Amino acid sequence: MEEQETILVVEDEQKIRTALKDFLEFHGFRVFEAVDGLEAERIVAEKPFDLILLDLMLPKISGEQLCTEWRRQDMQTPIIMLTAKGQQSERVAGLQLGADDYITKPFSLEELLARIQAILRRTNPARAVGQSFEFADLNVDIAQLKVKRDTEEIDITRREGQIIQFFAANPNRVISREELYKVVWKENMTELGTRTMDMHIAKLRSKIERNPSQPEIIKTVRGAGYKYEN
Amino acid sequence: MYKRLFILTVIIVAALSALALLGYHAVNRWAEGLEWKRVGEFADVAEQIRQDVKRRLDTFIRKEQNRPYTEYQYYYVPDNITNFSNLSQQQMPLLRSPLSGSLEHGLAYGHFQIGPGNTIVTANDSIELREGVNFNNADISAQNKLNRWNIKNSLLPVLQRKTKLTRLVVTGSNEAKKASPQNVRKVAARNKRRKRAEIMAKAANRRSRNLPIQSLQKDAQSTQMFRQSRAQVESNISNNAAPMGQQLGINAMHSQEKAAVAAKASENMQIPADSMKQRDQKSEDSKDKTHKALRPAKTVAESFRVPEKLETAGTADSTSALLFFKGDNGKLYGLDSALVAGRDAQDETVVVRVEPFVPVVVPGSSSDKSIFGGQVYLLRHVQIGERHFRQGFMLNEDKLITEVKESARRLMRQGMCFELPQLNHNTNREDSAYTAVFDFGFGDLTLAFNETDAGWIARQINQLKSWYLSIVVVVLMAVSLGLLSLWRYARAQIKLAEKKDDFISAVSHELRTPLTSLRMYSEMLEKNWIKSEDKLVEYYRSMRQESERLSRLIENVLDFSRIQKQRKTYTFSLGDLNQCVLDVVEMITPYAAQNGFTVKTQLAPAMQMTFDKDSVKQIIVNLLDNAIKYARNAADKTVIVRTRRDTQYVLIEVEDRGPGIPRRQHKKVFEEFYRLGSESTRETTGTGLGLALVKKFAQAHNGFVEILSAKPAGAIFRVGLAVQS
Description:
The complex is a heterodimer of chains A (230) and B (725). Helices cover 44% and strands 22% of the residues of chain A.
């Protein structure tokens, strides 16, 4: 069964908070609420979220302060700022604080949903391609961790499945080692991480490439990263 | 704005500082000018004194120079006798010298003549013999003896040490000074000292001035030359050379006796002289004998030196040579040496040459008392034919000082006084307001000028400085106050601008929030994103509540705008205030309940009064809304609405159990756009207009609004509405 994405709604206005909760739950998200900055800080410290909807004008700790602090702590959770501050300079300032998107009140719920899904697609490949999809000449089944080429079945690991999902979700785009590592391993790239990732790529190629020494599916782009061409 | 204000302040302060400095500089200049103006006045007075003293000295020296050389002896033959050649020596009339009978003649004292062999003759010699002994003569005789003693013991040794008369001159002609290397050194040294002193005086103090008075200098006078009857000259010389001889001649004494008396007379007149009456008894014989006996003139004349000034030209034979002498103007005058010498037997006249007076300072025992360092003699050289004499007198220093003092007293201006530091050694010349040094050539006389009120200039300067400083202080205070007001005004404007910005931001937020809710709920209803029927009702209710909130906000903003533009109108009518309260409570209860609040009422009975219903409702709504916002974190979420009647007012009170309002903010919360808490971390919502409007509406009812502290916690907002008749 597909795992529900969790969203934290940080909003001091009770009616807006309730509306957002109902709306997001209706669309299959698991929603948590925080009424002020202090509560949001506490909840985020306790539990990871797939996305945070953050109002800026909050009691106790402002949205800007929260965002800055979270990014300083290297938290990678995508943040969408929801605010009444609609001026261009305020948007730019919000994005510069580390927000992934910025939506001014009043907003359309449909647009909000689209933006949430776009961000989650970017950060959660599984959501983009699903559990079962085609990858080059392969049929991938993430639930069973199996890859089929014609009649040949290849077993893959969960990490390899995540790598395949990310490449499938981002075809024809050069993906840097850092980005891949951050999405799949949920960590920032380190020296050890580079070697780990290279080993995983090499092992995956040996399983899915016809000629692993000359890969056709996951190509290396020298000095830039990897690319899946579809 | 602060930057501009800061630049403006800096410019104003800099300009003021520059002006103050400039003013201070001007005041100092003025003070300096005042001091130097006074110094200028002193200098003017000093110059006037100099001119006055010079005029007196000029008159004096002119008189002395014009004094006939013959007056230096007791008797003399007058000039107005014609046909001298027809008169014998004995027939020459004799007059008593005007110098006789007194030693003091103006600034001159004790006229004397030094003849060949350093014989000293005065007009008062043997006055007791000639005029008889009386009190006056005895005194004159004693003074004359002292004078002769001085000449003999003080002046003559000095003259004898010198080879030339001109070299005796302490301050004589430049030519004379040049002639002596010793004098050149002395003069050079003195000039050097003087120059150095002048430079030092100039550098240190411009309050001193050297004022030359050259009246007694040789350069200021002229040489006189004239012809005189040989007989007259001879008669005068004989009288001059041997006064007692002449006396003997006129007294018809025996030649041997005459010679003895003459000898004795020449020994400073130690023997008593005969009376004047004896003169009338003279006989012709005795005259002849006396005349013959007393003709040592040739011998005396021969012993005279020819002054160095006279130069011979031509042959060594003096009888045919021309004699030249240098006049005061530097020109050479030629005289036939025979004429000068009177050797022309055919010529019955001789040339008499009287040279200018030359000052000679003779240091003596009294030099320490003298301001000139000794007795000052004025000597002149008189050449009569081949005979040379020195005539002169002592300068009366006391009289000279008296003359200077008199001039000074007469010419002093108001507030000025003077002292002679050379006489009064307690006087410090450095302390004087101005010092004039009268340079007579042979010495200086210093006149120290002072203020009678020494502090008047300082007082005037201090007064002006005090005025100036007072003005500067007043101006600085005025400017400081102006700048302070400007800063305060600017700060108020900036705060107002900030408040307006906050207001706009707050209004934007307050508008967007209910609009967002409305849009979200309406969209969910439209797209049917509803989980259950219960949610449907909740969404509609929320939409209604948010629209009410929106209308409250809009109402507040519009009311505020109307009040600002003075377009707000009130409709006062009789009504029940309690009913008005109940209506508002009913309306707001759901909103309060949603936020966890309970609204209670404590209403006084029979509250009929005249009021504007809309504005009173808005007062209660705003106060309740305010209580719900600020007390939302309170443990006891109860809000009480109370009505009471006072003698003058009907009171509406809204009490909450929130944190209360600090006393210092009791007035501020009623200011427009003022809200508690930071804008970024908003502890509350709102536009900052609610309480401001409450105040305005209360004032419209001739009422008031105040904040009281509730017990145990919370705030009571009390609105008083005047009871209208």
